[in-house]
Amino acid sequence: MIAELWNVPNVISLIRLALIPVFLWLGINGEYGWAGVLLGVIGATDWIDGYLARRFNQVTEVGKFLDPLADRLAVIVAVVAGLIWGVLPVGFAVALIVREALIGLGAMYGWSKGVTKLDVRWLGKAATLLLYVSISLFYIGFGFDVDPVIVGAWLTGVPGLVMYYWVGVEYLFDMRRAIAHAL
């Protein structure tokens, strides 16, 4: 297991996790624009670690855990902090938090019934990308006071949120099928 941890994709995931406190530090110090830039880097490296893992046959169980952990944690921290700091629109942030809570509860229920894995859907990856872009743009636009960037945040955020909910419903149906199969 230790050898599995130290491949390039997993190290990238660990770095992404380590950057979350830096993101918080920037925000706590009022550097919302730079926090948004860093969040964009965290989101972009999500695609890099996954690509490298598949390309170089370095997909590991550790990586399958670390990658989504880094994603969920970065998004949750950015959304909750953005709500507290007034960077994100309240309705947008609450919609993201509600979706994450519902999916989290569904996942816990599935695990209690013996479901250990659901396949990731392309739509889920696309929604996550749009939301990483949107949340980053809200931070950048707010922090650097650039209104057109806020418009871009809305233009990526609304479709991303719709897709996020849509794929959430698909995941719940997948979970239901997986539970029926596990029993």
Give the key terms.
183 residues
Report on the architecture of this protein.
The chain is mostly helical. The protein has a single domain (2-182), classed as Four Helix Bundle (Hemerythrin (Met), subunit A), CATH 1.20.120. Helix content is 85%, strand content 0%. Helix 6 packs antiparallel against helix 7. The protein is globular, with a radius of gyration of 17 Å. The mean pLDDT is 91.
**Unreliable stretches:** none
Number of E strands:
0
Which second-level CATH architecture applies?
Up-down Bundle
> Could you tell me the strand content as a percent range?
under 5%
Mean pLDDT score, rounded? Answer: 91
Total domain units: 1
Give the class from helix and strand content and strand pairing: mainly alpha
Question: Which CATH class?
Answer: Mainly Alpha
- The Rg value, from CA coordinates, equals 17 Å
Relative helix content: over 70%
By DSSP (H or I, 4+ residues per run), the number of helices equals 7
- CATH third-tier fold name: Four Helix Bundle (Hemerythrin (Met), subunit A)
- What is the string of helix and strand elements? HHHHHHH
Question: Termini distance?
Answer: 30 Å
Instruction: Label the overall shape.
Output: globular
